[in-house]
Design goal:
Blueprint (H helix, E strand, L loop, with lengths): L4 E3 L2 E3 L5 E6 L2 H4 L3 E7 L6 E6 L5 E3 L7 E6 L4 E6 L8 E9 L2 E4 L3 E5 L2
Parallel strand pairs: 2-11
Antiparallel strand pairs: 1-3, 3-8, 4-5, 4-9, 5-6, 7-8, 9-10, 9-11
Length: 115
């Protein structure tokens, strides 16, 4: 059973920042592309940001310039730094690990942006 363990969600005011973390098993971290997705009520799950094992990144247009994805090899952890948060960023954020036909998900962490 592969477990991706997310943390760092919460309630933040518009314009604020949060950093999400996802701890990944070592054998997964070294081989898999890691990503963050989000899902708001009534919406489909959507890619937020992705980082390859080589460090290449890509972002959803709606978060470019505000969010940064990174990976910390010694800690086997992928981060999502979220700045200038807006109410429409409110969603459950899920960590994902993908390699070839293998695809794993974390349990999700709630991010709520509200005054």
């Amino acid at each position: 059973q592969v477990q991706l363990v997310e943390s760092g969600g919460g309630l933040v005011q518009p314009g604020g920042s949060l950093r999400l973390s996802c701890r990944v098993p070592r054998n997964i971290f070294s081989r898999y592309t890691l990503a963050w997705y989000r899902q708001a009520p009534g919406n489909q799950r959507a890619l937020v940001a992705r980082i390859t094992t080589g460090g290449d990144t890509n972002y959803a247009d709606s978060v470019k310039g505000r969010f940064t994805v990174s990976r910390d090899s010694p800690k086997n952890t992928v981060y999502l730094q979220m700045n200038s948060l807006r109410p429409d960023d409110t969603a459950v954020y899920l960590c994902n690990a993908n390699w070839e036909r293998n695809n794993y998900w974390g349990q999700g962490t709630q991010v709520t942006v509200s005054s």
